[in-house]
Every structure is written in structure tokens, then in C-alpha cells.
Design a protein that fits this description.
The structure is a homodimer. By secondary structure, chain A is α/β, with parallel strands linked by helices. Chain A folds into 3 domains: 265 residues, TIM Barrel; 126 residues, 2,3-Dihydroxybiphenyl 1,2-Dioxygenase, domain 1, CATH 3.10.180; 181 residues, 2,3-Dihydroxybiphenyl 1,2-Dioxygenase, domain 1. In chain A, 32% of the residues lie in helices and 24% in strands. The first copy, chain A, has 17 helices and 25 strands. In chain A, the strands form 3 sheets. In chain A, strands 17, 18, 19, 20, 21, 22, 23, 24 and 25 form a 9-stranded mixed sheet that branches. An 8-stranded parallel β-barrel of chain A has the order 1-2-3-4-5-6-7-8, surrounded by 6 helices. In chain A, strand 14 and strand 15 form a beta hairpin. In chain A, helix 3 packs across helix 4. The radius of gyration of chain A is 28 Å and the shape is elongated. The two termini of chain A are 53 Å apart. At the A-B interface, helix 2, helix 4, strand 19, helix 15 and helix 17 of A face helix 2, helix 4, helix 10, strand 19 and helix 16 of B. Chains A, B: This is 3-dehydroshikimate dehydratase.
Amino acid sequence: MRTSIATVSLSGSLTEKLTAAARAGFDGVEIFENDLLASPLTPEEVRARCADLGLTVDLYQPMRDIEAVPGDEFARNLRRARHKFELMRRLGADTVLVCSSVSPQAVDDDALAAEQLSRLADLARDSGIRVAYEALAWGRHVSTYDHAWRIVESAGHPALGTCLDSFHILSRGSDPKGIEDIPGEKIFFLQLADAPLLAMDVLQWSRHYRCFPGQGGFDVAGLVRHVLRTGYDGPLSLEVFNDVFRQAEAGPTAVDARRSLLVLQETVGRAALPEPVVPTGVAFAELVTPDAEPLTALLGALGFIRTARHRGKPVTLWEQGDARILVNTGPAVRRDGTQLAAIGLESPDPAAAARRAEALLAPVLPRRRAPEDAPLDAVAAPDGTELFFCATGRPDLPDWRADFEDTDPAPAPAAVRRIDHLALVQPWHHFDEAALFHRGVLGLHAQESVDVADPYGLLRSRAVTNADGSVRIALTVGAAPMDDTVHAQHIALATDDVVASARRFREAGGSLLPVPANYYDDLAARFEFADGELETYRDLGILYDRDAHGAFRHCYTRTVGRVFFELVQRDDGYRGYGAPNAPVRLAAQHAVRTLTGG
Amino acid sequence: MRTSIATVSLSGSLTEKLTAAARAGFDGVEIFENDLLASPLTPEEVRARCADLGLTVDLYQPMRDIEAVPGDEFARNLRRARHKFELMRRLGADTVLVCSSVSPQAVDDDALAAEQLSRLADLARDSGIRVAYEALAWGRHVSTYDHAWRIVESAGHPALGTCLDSFHILSRGSDPKGIEDIPGEKIFFLQLADAPLLAMDVLQWSRHYRCFPGQGGFDVAGLVRHVLRTGYDGPLSLEVFNDVFRQAEAGPTAVDARRSLLVLQETVGRAALPEPVVPTGVAFAELVTPDAEPLTALLGALGFIRTARHRGKPVTLWEQGDARILVNTGPAVRRDGTQLAAIGLESPDPAAAARRAEALLAPVLPRRRAPEDAPLDAVAAPDGTELFFCATGRPDLPDWRADFEDTDPAPAPAAVRRIDHLALVQPWHHFDEAALFHRGVLGLHAQESVDVADPYGLLRSRAVTNADGSVRIALTVGAAPMDDTVHAQHIALATDDVVASARRFREAGGSLLPVPANYYDDLAARFEFADGELETYRDLGILYDRDAHGAFRHCYTRTVGRVFFELVQRDDGYRGYGAPNAPVRLAAQHAVRTLTGG
């Protein structure tokens, strides 16, 4: 199917919008009137620009407050329409969106609405234009899609059809099944938007909180299935605007948008993408650093042993149980301090995983590898983290370990068993995009978003996981842009005995994040502990949480650059990440930073 | 009355919060439990810190999910309460807030709730503590203040009272008049918050959108009047949290908070502040600049004549009609480019205006003046703009003009008649504060906030005016922090003939902001114009708007530093500021900036 996007969905000047849409692979655009008005290009120039970029102009939008008005008002509206149809001719747009009226002048008279829309359609037909009439969820008299369709049907005009918008339909709670009663050829256009399920004024909801399909709570795919059953063969078009996208760069937003449509097309059986290949574990986490010393000292205290070095690059491998950390001191794209740069994901079929990622517009990373290296497929996540699809110790697949030569024997069975989860701070504009990426590209499941109070601002956090929890990634973002120097990425290491692991770490010279005594007084009030247990936690700075399944004990190292480590003990199927303790942890990290000036 | 603020209303560490509250002049604080948990200070140290700062600990909050639960659960709750009462003893807090339960375990049984709250109150009394029971708007079985009061009343326990929270009461649409049926001595605490009138989920509304009294849409003063009639003599306490305040600095937020309470106390007749002295006009606007040339060239082209220079400072006065612009090249606090630094407001009683501003916590500016200068009272607005209360040409008052010596004769009657309005870009965190400041301190009226789409982000704009429109200030802010280099402040100059003024400006070498031709095609579709009229507008870049009252024609100069000028013709009582044209103007300014690299 053809895909389209409304220019209002992207930020910038009209030409920036068109370029971003074309680069992301859209076939066409809806031109939002205000974007044209504010552009120095003539309509002819816009038309030529679109043609150069391979974009069709699928819709001109919107015309408002046209129908069911007194005669003199309607005469003025026709005059306005005449101007706009001439403009559309110059622009090369053959369909115009007419929204149901919100004017106080409009009357509740379907027959009058049908008659006036017919007269508008007469005028349109003379210019080779089709009129797509859409019910706004907050329309004065017409606010549901079936009502708009009844008016269109009774008008019976060949140049008059309806436009369906998933937001207006699903936000009203209308049953989209009735769409199947509309002949496909009378559905002149289909606009798609998702939205989080908020109980709020629908106009505000629409204006500020729309998002791309799959990023919100609506069953947009279900609606599209109903539309396709009618025989509709127009484009799937995105009309999405929210306060965040308005500030984001148009290029990444357009890619995000198109990815959401590809996933949607796959869901409704209209796109043949490579199957998702869900990762089955974390092969490694790669840290880049200009100075390996502080990092390797920390790894050593955590019980990691350096077991191998890369044959051709300044990268060492540190292991403990199934936790593997690469320390890279070579040139990297982002070399402004110590940070988590890449994640190796165990993949049952790395090449297929990469093919799916590429089909879903993930930037494929150049390999820049020596000829003898094992092939390693990698793409960039929206936050820039490199994701490697790889295999560890499987005879049927090239092993990334083969690029390393052993330096020390593998360590004895150790306290840290594996990487429990990775926490990645997301750029402010790309939080919803990140969740969709990890779901759509990697086939992970996205959990509910939770709010976390930092002393200096609210954070939102959302985890994506595979079915058995062997891959868990926590995505975090500020509720608004903020100084995020304290919001480091982190690697959580799973241990069966966090107390023993924390003690060993401290004995090895490691320094744990101090936790205020008041926190433990509160734990004592909320839970019952064995004798001495709480004193141990207090001594080590271990935090405690409990959910319906089990208990969670965790503690934190100091931060090196923009990375810190967490030791976690997850008992009896505890599912969370200790979110109730996050405010205490964040306050403690701020306090340490203030003390050390770091 | 005593005033108090919940620590959750301010950002930062607990000690930062306490310091900010004390500096703003609050008498006490509510200690939010999580703030204590995250603090490295012991309860005794917090108590001592409060005492040092002159703050009482008025409330410890909150205890949740206490009442109407099965016996074993309640036993655990009492155990928890015992810990907390001991903590409160150490903290020196004698009142605890208990919120109505949201637990799925809670049952709908008022008798059980009353009995269990009584048992809690028994325990509290033994520790010298009072229990204030509050209905959360989203409480499971108890969600209205009168229901909470009925339970408290039927318990009949001396250590059990109710806590009223204006948000929980007004967000539910409850009638606050019933508060008067509660004996004042049983109202143990009063929490105040305002909120914008949003139709949304009440929990989300409460968590993200509360604001200080007078900043939202609730009749908080009306509610307080009902409470005062009961004889309540506890503190007025602010419990306000929203996503913006969480990121703002605690110091200014605390001042903003206290100012809102002062205005509220005045409204309910419990504070004797100096009367507002509403400004009657704009005496001058003062621009500071490191280089006067570009600015004075612009002023000259606009028809201003330099009429005087300050006797002791490098400041010149430029006049045209009643519009007066000061150009200051001397040292100023903010010297990073050309900007609008100060506004002179005509005041019927400058000294009284300054007294009110000072009483409402506006920073009074040092005069730094020569001994012979006329006294000039000035305060700083929240955005740092200096506001001078002054008089022009009134024999009974010192005239600020007396500090200037004439250099050229006053200009002949000119096209520009006066300053129509001033547009000030606000720091992101202080938009609501700015409106409250201009209303409370200056006695201006705040109009509705409107959204304006900039190509790179949404803006919000709100005008404050006096009754006859001779003082109009438009306050603008980004919906989120953004690069605001293009969002300059501006001075709008009123003319009776914008076409003539624009022509004269251009003939004098001035450069007007070019407006796209598409905009005029749209005007032609929307309005009817006399022959040639639209061509004139198009030629000059004049924008057009119309409201129920009249028409508005306006055009813009290029930007110098962070300031530009607008020429406006306001006919037949047009009340707005051309907001529908703002997206086109902003896009044109972005385009110019891109072209010039400025």
C-alpha cells in the first residue's frame, strides 16, 4: 500500500518536512494549509519540489466550517473554496479534506449539510477535485464517522466521499466495525494516529498527545483491517501532532513515522517484512572509554576477570559467569567520556535479525572490520546505541568470541551470573520511538511506562523484555529536557546473593552508593526482616522491594563517566526494577555528585 | 495567618527545599515522606535545621491505605504507624496526614473505617500526635470531603480530625459551602492548590498539573472563605506539584508560592497589603545594547527622533508621539546583546506601587543613581525585566524626564502614537509565575492563554492588560524548553495608518519582514478587500486579522540582537494581538535567520 504523512506531523519549514518525508521513504504527503501559507515557495514550486522528491500530494487540508450554515455564510464559504480549488490545481492536489463544522453558526440539519456539501462537490468536480468529509471528534453537530458517512451517502455525489481518521473514531469510543458498511470507493482518504489512553478533553488530547500507530493505546490495526475490507485502496496516511514532535528534528521523526506504518502494515497482512528474530540473551555490553583504568578497577572489584583481547582492536573482554563486558579504548563515534556504546544480543539468526532491522529502517552500521573477523551484523538504536546481533559458543554460527584471543583462563563460577538488565537514557524527543523500535525491530515486549521522581525533575521509564526475561532493557527519559549529567546509563548484574557480592566488592576496594538511614527506618516500618538483615542492608547500601511475585535486593556502584553498575538479586520471579527505590537512589547520586563536584 | 508549604512542592534535596521555603518567608513546612527518606540528615537533624531556619514542621505526610481493611492488614498498618509516630517524635511533627485508602483490600464500610481510624488515633495520642484524615479525589471508597468528615465525626476521637485539600475538593466539583458545617477545631489542616480547568483523569491532573492559588481556574479563595468561617486557625499550606516545578529552581518557586498565598490572603481579607496601583500607560521601554548604531538606525527609520540624553548615564531618549524608547549603552546586568531590559510604567502613585510590589516579594532594585536624579522606584519581574514606576509630565510627581537634558526639539506629530504592547519571552519554568506577578503586583488583568505553532515547537502566549488597554504586555513561553534565539522580545508601536508608516519606514531605509505570497492568497480567500488593498499589504508585508470587534493590521522589522519592532494599526476596538498570523511571522523570522545565518 502507498504511505503518506501530513506535513503537520513534522517540524520545520515546508521544504524540510518534504525532504524528511521523502528520505524516510513515504510515497506522498498531505499538505497542511498553514505549512503552505508560511512557505516562501509558490504552489507550483511546492509541486515541483514534491515531484523531484518522488512524493505525490495526496491531500490538501483542512477546509473548516463549510456546511450546514445560513445561505450568506455558505456563499462566502464557496467563494473561499473557489480560491482553494484554484490553489490545489496549482499544487497538483486532487483531494481536499473538509472537517465537520465547529462553527456556532452551523445548524443541526443533515439535509442542509448534504445539500451544501453537494454544491461544494459540484464546484470541486469542475476543478477535478474530490471532497473528503471527515467527522471531527469535537464537531458541533457531526462528531462520529457513521454520521459523516450518512450525510455523504444521502448527498450521493460522485465527487464527495468520506475521510476516516483513527483518532477521531477511536477517541470517541466508536465501534470501527461499522466502517465495513461504507463502500471502499467512497472512502476517499484514511488518516492514522494513535494516542495514549488518557481520560481528557478530546480536543486537547488530539492537539497535544497524538502519536504514531503502535506508540499509543488505540487498536489502530483493528481499524485499518475494517477499512481494508471495504476495498479502500488509497494511502495509509499519518496525521500526528504533539508537543514533542513539534520540537524534534523532522528527519528522525519521519523515519519513526514510517517505521510505525511498516509495523502496522505487517500487522494487517499488507507488508512482507522479514520475521522478527527475538534475541535470547545479552552476549555482551560494550563500554567505550578514553581511560580504561577506573573502569577496569571497578570491573575487577566486581569480580570480573579480563579473559581475552580483540585481535585487531584495542578492546578487552571481561567475564564473570555469563556476564561479558567489552572495554573499548579505540576510536569510537562518541568519545566524550566513558559510556555504554553497544549491546551484543544473542540471536538465533543474526543475519535475519539484521534483515528485519534494515527493513524497519534501522541504520545498518558499517562493519569496519578486518577481513579475518567473524561477520557481525549491527544496527543503531534511536539513541545511537549500537546493537550487535551475534552468537556465543554456537557451532552453527560464526562466534564473535573468535575475534578475541584468550589472555587468561575463564573465571571460576562467580557471584555475578549474567547481565540482568541494561538501562539506557533516551534523548528527550525519542522516547516513544525507542519503545516502538525495540518492539518492532527486536520483537521485545514493552511494559507499562512508570513515573519516577528525581529531585530535579520527573523521569519516565519503560522496560522492554523478551519472554523469559533474559533480555531486559530499561528506557528512561526526562518528562522535559533536563541536565542529564547525573542520569547515567547503567548495567545491572544478576547475582544469587547480593549481600555476598556487595561485601566482596567492598572488600576488593569498591565503593557502594551510600543510602540514607531514613530509608531503612522506612523499610522497617513496611516489612518484617530477620534479625540483623536490615542492619546488613543498611551497612552495604542495599535497597529492597517486593512485588506480588517476589523480592528484589539491589545496590549501586559509584558512577564512572556516564556509566554505573548495579548488583541485583531477583527472587521468586520479581518482575520489576526496584522503581519505588529510584527516587532514593537518584537523590543519593545527586548528593554524591554535589560532594565530589563530579 | 501562618503559611506553610509542602516540601514536595519544591525541587532539590530536603535541605535545599527547607532553605528556599524559609527564605521566601514561609512559617512552616509539610515534610513529604519521600523527601525525608532520601535525605542523609537524621530526623533530629532535620528538626534542628528547621528550627535554625525559623520553620515549624506542621505536617508529616502521607500515610496511605490505613483504614477499612481486614484485621491482619490493619495490624500491619498499626505496626507501620508505630514506626512513623516514633519518627515524627524525633522530627518534632505533631500532625500526620492520612489519605483515604486506594487499596484494593479496602472495603466500603464507614463504621470499620471510623473504628480503625479511632484505633490509629489512640496510638497517635499516646505520642502526642493528631491524625488528619483526607479524602483523595480518587480514593477507593472515600473520595469527597464530606464523606471523610462523616467518618471522622462518627469516630468522635479527640486526636482525629480532617484535612481539607482544595484540589481534591474542587477537582471533584464538590460544593465547598458544606465545609462550614465542620467545626473549625476538627479541621486539623488545610492544603491549597489550584489547577487549570482540564477535563482529564483526576489522578493525572493532580500529579502533573497542580499550580499555586491564582494560577489556575479553581475558586481557591472561595473555598478558603468557607474554611475560615468554621474558625479554623491552622496554617494555609501549599501542596502543589507539577512537572514544571519539579525541574525549576527551589528558590524562585518558593517565592512564587508565597506570593500566591499573600494574594490569596488579601482576597479573603486576611492580609493588609498596600493597595494595587494599576499603571495607566507605558512611560518608556529601555533597550540595552553594546552597540547603539543598528538600533538607532532602526529607530530613526521608524520615525523616532533622539530628543534627550541622560545627565549622568550613557542613555539617550528617542521619542515619537507618546512612544518613548531609551537606548542604554552603559554597563547593565545583562550585557549579552541588544535586548529589552526595562519598562517604565506610568503610575498614579509610584511609591505606593513599589510598596505593593515589595510586599509581594518583588526584588526591589537598587537605585544606583546620582544624588540629583529624580527618585525612581523599580522592581524586577520574574523574567528579570526591570519595571520602573514613574510619572511623565505630572507636576505633582518627580518626573523621570528631569534626569534628561534635551538635545533636540520634540518631534512633530508623528505616525507612531504610542507603544501598543510589549512582548516578553519568559523563562520556561516561570510562565504561570509571570502572569500571577503581573496580576497580583501590578493589578493587570490576565487574558486567556493561547497556543501558537512555531515551526520548531509550540509556544504559549498570554496577555496582561489594564482596563483601557494603555498597558498591554504579552508573555510568551515555549511549551517545552527550546532554543529561543529566534524568539525575541518585541515592542509594538501603535499607528493610525500602518500602510503609511510602513512605507515611510521602508523609504527611510528600513527593512520589513517579508511575508510569503501564499499568505495573501489565503487572505483573499477569507476576506474581501478593496481594489489594490491586498497588493499593498503584500508589497509591504502587512498581516491582517479580524475579530468580533474590528480589524488589525501589522508588520515587523528585522531583529536586532534579541529585539524587533512591530507596527500595528488597531481599528474599531480589535482586542487581540494577531495570534492567527503568528505562525506565518515566526516561520518568516526563522527563514530570515537561516538566510542570514543570524
